[in-house]
Amino acid sequence: NLLRVVQAPNEANLTGTICQIYPSVVMVTDPPVWSTPWEEKKKKLTPILFMVVVIIFLYFVYVVCHCIPMLQFQEDPLHVDEGMRWRGRVEIVAFHVITGFLIWCYVRSCTVHPGTIPDDDPQWECHGQDTAFGEPTMNLQETKKTGDRRHCKHCKRYKPDRTHHCRVCRRCILKMDHHCPWIYNCVGYYNYKCFYLLLFYCVLDTHLIFWTMLESVLWTLEVDMYFINIFLIYFGVTLACFFGTLITAFFGFHTWLMLRAMTTIEFCEKSMPPKRQGSSPPLEEKSSFDSSVYDLGAWGNLQAVLGPDVLLWFVPFGPMNGDGFTFVSDETRLSKDLTASKGHRRRTHQRVQRSQRQRSYHADALRTNT
Description:
It comes from Noctiluca scintillans. The chain is mostly helical. About 50% of the residues lie in helices and about 5% in strands. It is built from 8 helices and 8 strands; from the N terminus they run E-H-E-H-H-E-E-E-E-E-E-H-H-H-H-H. It has a two-stranded parallel sheet. The longest helix is centred in the C-terminal third of the chain and has 37 residues, at about 335-370. The N and C termini lie far apart (about 100 Å).
């Protein structure tokens, strides 16, 4: 076994003595080097810096190498292609509008707090025993397998429905979807709309760049250009195609989740709220991956994410439906299933009663005839 000794300035004699007695001693004279908070922050900000560089590069390539040549500022007015100039004007205006919304949504996604459990609300304080579960104002659906309320061992707070603890942010996030390193923030209840619109405008921007710059790719085969221009055009188209494919698939996945009132965590867990003690009818603990007890229908799910005002659906702000703590209402699938099951039990009970009365009537008639 190796004995590790940390040398101090006033322990030189002791160190020499130890080395003479134990030749196999390993001396550690340099203090351990720990990463500073700023170094850790730089690592976390690297994805954001990468995204900023990509946006700037694609903006430069599309405007300088594609749109400006289409406007033909240096061409003789007699040789100007008016159709190409008109397309250039439309494309550069559309590109700037979409890119402006993209940057707006990106900033909002990074800066808007996703929502967390308030510290000054006593109903979420974890007292070590489940004393407030029976309160009608809580209306919680997600519990442990034992029927107790879920609580966070890190924050020492009870968890509302769909709330999870993020180890990166070190806090509980309301309706947590996932932690996104590209925005250096969690995606939760209050910034999910900003994140979804960010994906939407990224899809529009990358597809606009790719499909319209194919015309510039054809120019490189017909017109003599500098090598740097050819390289920028081909690299920009390739980059737009790569990111467009990935983001389109990711956007389609989140659209599918939104229409089914699910989060990424809920999709991965494939879970439904467990059965509460004494509840009727019994609820299954597991469900298919494409269903959610919080389903409000396609239109209701859209409003739950994008807001009740359709005119504000495509801007990263606006009022939200709900408060991020309760998600079960009269319109959710859970409430409808409970109501339908109660009606089914009532009809079944009525049929049983009628059959019992009929058997009793036939028995009385048989005894009378006898």
